[in-house]
Each structure stands twice: as structure tokens, then as C-alpha cells.
Backbone:
């Protein structure tokens, strides 16, 4: 299998008030090793810019078998699959110091033409041929909705949550969603599973209206969070504790 591995040690910026890894930190790891893997093969940001292409995350799901704590050293392995129906799957496996798998992230990337802003349905051979024909493991990408929604405030796409594309970073939506949930819900324990659909980018400085409500899906009972920009869904998320 074509794969790429790095090791990290969790520090204060990666954990929540419990001292446990935040969901957003896990998704940042998935994004980082995917980018590092491509760059190690010569497909860095300049490579894609020269071809007027960019990879964006369309859907994503993760599951913690055990949530690691601050100062733990983790081994991150990313494994990419060739494109299918306009999306390329990448699976991140996280192992602890004993070699046990403690987390997994299933990300679906879409290649976009930066001139037309259209999805590239036929990924160029020079890119797609580098990835595996099949990566068998995957997580449910379904996002069950709540029957009733409660307004949860407005969040601006501020400096702290935007990336070099000048919009809210995919991983940061987990922080936005957790901030929108009632505190007594968060006190149930760390988020163990989440599935996210990214519908529309939220550019820097733009507001996103947040709504949440209880829902039932992967792993049983959980919570649904959605953010709307200009009346249309920017993202939808389901999480379970």
C-alpha cells in the first residue's frame, strides 16, 4: 500500500480542558499528513497551483477507540485511494506507543479547478496513479439531522479559525460545532465519533448562523449541528459522545 507515516507528541494546544485530544486536533493531523504525503512525492502547493487545481475536503468522519491525552506520542499513517465519482478517499490511522489503533479518520477529498470552481471528475493520471486502487476501510459519512433545531448563536469566520485559503479551516468546524453545543452536553464526555459534510466555504470575515439539536445516528444518540451562510447550509455535523 502507498502510505505515509509521521509521529507527533500532543501538547497543550491539541487537548481540551480534560487534557484529552480535541476532535479538531485529530482532523488537523489528517489534513497535515495528507498534505505532507503529497509534498513528499513532489505534489506540493506549487505543483497544484501551476495546474490551477486545489484539493478541498467534501466529507469527513472520525472515530476514537480511545481518546489520547496530552504528552502522548502518536504514530499517524495516511493511506490514499484513487478517485471514485469525483472524490478521493484518504484514511488516517492513529496508533499509540504500544502500537494499538486508537483513532481513525476517513476523509473524502475533491479536486477543484480554481478557474471554473468546478469539481474535476477525471483526476489527471499524474496525480491519481500515485494512489492505491483501493483502501478497504471506511467510516459512515451519514449525517442524521435533528427533528427540531435550536438557535446557537452566530460565529464569524475570524482570524483564529481561517486558513491560507482565507476561509474557515475544515478542522476548525469541530471547534465551532463544540462551542455551539450546550455545556451539559459536552460534559457527557469527549466526542467519540463525528461525521461532517462541508457544503459551502465561509470566507474570512463572514458570519455563519449556528443551530443544533439532539439526533440519533452512528453509535446511537448524539447531536446535530449546522451552520448557515446567507440562508444556505455551510456545513452539517453529527457527533456522539
Residues:
Amino acid at each position: 500500500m502507498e502510505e505515509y507515516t509521521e509521529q507527533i507528541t500532543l501538547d497543550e494546544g491539541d487537548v481540551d480542558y480534560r487534557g484529552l485530544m480535541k476532535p479538531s486536533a485529530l482532523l488537523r493531523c489528517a489534513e497535515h499528513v495528507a498534505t505532507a504525503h503529497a509534498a513528499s512525492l513532489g505534489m506540493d502547493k506549487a505543483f497544484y497551483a501551476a495546474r490551477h487545481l486545489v484539493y478541498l475536503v467534501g466529507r469527513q468522519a472520525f472515530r476514537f477507540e480511545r481518546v489520547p491525552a496530552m504528552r502522548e506520542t502518536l504514530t499517524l499513517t495516511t493511506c490514499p485511494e484513487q478517485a471514485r465519482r469525483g472524490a478521493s478517499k484518504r484514511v488516517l490511522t492513529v496508533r499509540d506507543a504500544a502500537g494499538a489503533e486508537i483513532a481513525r479518520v476517513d476523509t473524502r477529498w475533491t479536486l477543484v479547478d480554481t478557474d471554473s470552481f468546478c469539481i474535476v471528475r477525471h483526476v489527471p493520471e499524474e496525480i491519481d496513479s500515485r494512489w492505491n486502487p483501493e483502501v478497504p476501510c471506511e467510516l459512515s459519512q451519514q449525517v442524521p439531522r435533528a427533528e427540531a433545531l435550536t438557535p446557537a448563536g452566530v460565529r464569524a469566520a475570524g482570524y483564529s479559525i481561517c486558513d491560507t485559503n482565507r476561509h474557515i479551516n475544515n478542522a476548525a468546524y469541530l471547534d465551532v460545532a463544540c462551542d455551539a453545543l450546550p455545556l451539559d452536553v459536552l460534559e457527557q464526555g469527549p466526542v467519540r465519533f463525528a461525521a461532517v459534510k462541508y457544503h459551502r466555504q465561509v470566507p474570512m470575515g463572514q458570519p455563519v448562523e449556528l443551530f443544533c439539536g439532539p439526533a440519533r445516528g452512528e453509535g446511537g444518540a448524539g447531536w446535530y449541528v449546522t451552520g448557515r451562510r446567507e440562508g444556505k447550509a455551510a456545513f452539517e455535523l453529527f457527533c456522539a459522545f
